[in-house]
Write a structure and sequence with these properties.
single chain, 233 residues, alpha/beta, Rossmann fold, 2 domains, 45% helix
Length: 233
């Protein structure tokens, strides 16, 4: 079995449970901004629509088609207008309220802390994420993840976004390591797995839903639960 020295983790959807934390936040905002008063949608419909719009817009962001400002300004507008509100009815400040509240949520995937405790004495652990710098640090502090990681590289700090190989190379250069010494763990096949492949880094595809695709290249490893990392490493 290959010996690694450095383990690279994605953050959202891999360690920090974005869906659970986002859902809690959306339900809070539904009541805080009294959206039921419009009589057009319930809290569940609000969450489902937001999730759909946000996923689409993050896809555009990762491909460089929109910037951070456009993503933050438009996702709630698109969500609420898609649910029947007029543009002037979209509550002022709802986007900022989401950005302030969501990163303070604490939910992580099962076995996150247990696995990090297991890995930390054996490897140097790092985060490489397309998330926004100030938000990612709040998430890590809220969920008590900061203490495990030596380097935290965001797309903002290096000027590139996964799957651009230059983002991975930025981290390699920053800590003076070779691709073959590393293993990348992430949930996004294009950004995390194919991005790592492009610069010769082995990969663990974290696929808790068991999504199948015939068109994808085979990752080095694939897991459905973080606890499986103890078998690999």
């Amino acid at each position: 079995m290959k010996t690694y020295q450095h383990i690279l983790f994605d953050l959202d959807h891999t360690l920090w449970d974005f869906e659970k934390n986002s859902e809690e936040t959306i339900y809070t905002l539904y009541h805080q901004f009294e959206l039921a008063g419009f009589g057009k949608f319930d809290s569940e419909s609000f969450y489902k629509k937001y999730k759909f719009v946000n996923t689409q817009m993050w896809g555009l962001y990762n491909k460089g088609k929109i910037n951070q400002k456009e993503l933050r300004e438009n996702r709630f507008k698109k969500t609420l207008m898609g649910l029947g509100l007029e543009e002037h009815e979209v509550p002022a400040g709802i986007s900022e309220a989401y950005t302030d509240l969501c990163p303070t949520k604490k939910a992580v995937f099962p076995f996150t802390h247990e696995v990090l405790e297991y890995l930390q004495p054996k490897y140097s652990l790092h985060i490489i994420t397309n998330g926004f710098k100030e938000v990612q640090h709040i998430k890590m502090a809220s969920s008590e993840l900061h203490g495990y990681f030596k380097e935290i590289v965001t797309s903002e700090c290096c000027g590139y976004k996964k799957p651009d190989r230059r983002m991975f190379e930025h981290l390699l250069d920053r800590i003076n390591i070779k691709p073959e010494e590393c293993l990348m763990i992430g949930d996004n096949f294009e950004c995390d797995i194919e991005g790592a492949m492009s610069c010769g880094i082995d990969q663990v595809y974290f696929n808790p839903e068991g999504v199948r695709s015939k068109k994808r290249p085979k990752p080095t490893y694939e897991i459905m639960c973080l606890s499986e990392l103890k078998v690999i490493l």
